[in-house]
Structures are given as structure tokens and as C-alpha cells.
Amino acid sequence: MNTCLALLFAGLFLTACGNSSTPSNSGSNAAATPPAATNLNERAALDVIGKINEAQVTYFKLNRRFALTFEELIDAKLLAADPTATQSGYEFKLRPAADAQTYTLAVVPAVASTDARYFFTDQSGIIRAETGKDASADSPKA
């Protein structure tokens, strides 16, 4: 019985020690979080882009300018939540002009990829895409 207990405690100790080495690897835990982000979901990203464009149009009608941040769209109840990479595997970067009369939205994979699609849109509402590189206003329509 004592031998069984000793082996059990030794196993638990080794498991705990083995797990304690994992956090040293998790110093790059920000890089470890995007594995969920490596599962790119273009349909989800395109859906979010469409919702952001709609929210910006409505915001402009109400305020005579585009929102400067996602928080402004959320506060105005035009967007449900801040878009995150955990939802689609993409990062959403809103870039309004200084006068807030135009904006661009860059949508890039959370983990860079040469075979993933990158998206771009602006106040025109047209969504554009490139494979393996940043999309721009000159990119083909998605």
C-alpha cells in the first residue's frame, strides 16, 4: 500500500513538474493562442466585415462622420462586440481618416500565411481580397 501511495505521489509530482515547464513555453502563449486563429473561417470574417460596413453607414447617417473605433460602434449599439481573432482567425484593423469622412478596414489572418486570403474594405462597402498578402483598394473584389 505504501508503495502504491509513493508511486501515486511520484506520478502526481512528475505531472506537476512537467506542467510547470509548459508555462516557460507559454511565454509565447500569445503565439500559442492563435492556433485557434490558424483555423481561418473566411465566411465568418466576411460576415463581420459586412456588419462593420453596415454599422459604419448607419453611424455616418447619425453622426455625419464614421466611427473612429469599434467601441464607438458598440456604444451606438450598431455592433454587438469587438471583432476578435478567436471568432474567425482574422484580425480586424479599423483605420479612419483624420477627419472621419472615410475609413479603411484591413482584415488579416492572425497568423501570417502565404495561402490565406487577406481582405480590405472602405466606406464604399466593396470587399477586396488578395491571397498571401495584404489587400488594398486596388485588389480584386472578393
- Global geometry: globular
Q: How many individual helices?
A: 6
Strand content: 15-25%
- Total number of beta strands: 4
Low-confidence stretches: 1-37
Largest sheet: 4 strands, antiparallel
Instruction: Classify the helix fraction into a percent range.
Output: 40-55%
Termini separation (Å)?
67 Å
The helix/strand order is HHHHHHEEEE
Spatial order of the strands in the main sheet? Answer: 1-2-3-4
Structural Rg: 22 Å
> Helix/strand-derived class?
alpha+beta
What is the typical, i.e. mean, pLDDT? 81
In short:
This protein is α+β, with helices and mostly antiparallel strands. The protein has a domain at 34-131. It is 46% helix and 17% strand.
Task: Label this structure with key terms.
142 residues, alpha+beta, four-stranded antiparallel β-sheet, 4 strands
What features would you describe in this structure?
- This protein is α+β, with helices and mostly antiparallel strands and 142 residues long.
- The chain has a domain at 34-131.
- The protein has 6 helices and 4 strands; from the N terminus they run H-H-H-H-H-H-E-E-E-E.
- The chain has helices spanning 2-25, 29-32, 34-38, 42-63, 70-75, 85-88; strands at residues 90-96, 103-109, 117-122, 128-131.
- The chain has a 4-stranded antiparallel sheet.
- A hairpin with a 6-residue loop joins strand 1 and strand 2 (103-109).
- It is globular, with a radius of gyration of 22 Å.
- The termini are far apart.
- Residues 1-37 have low confidence and may be disordered.
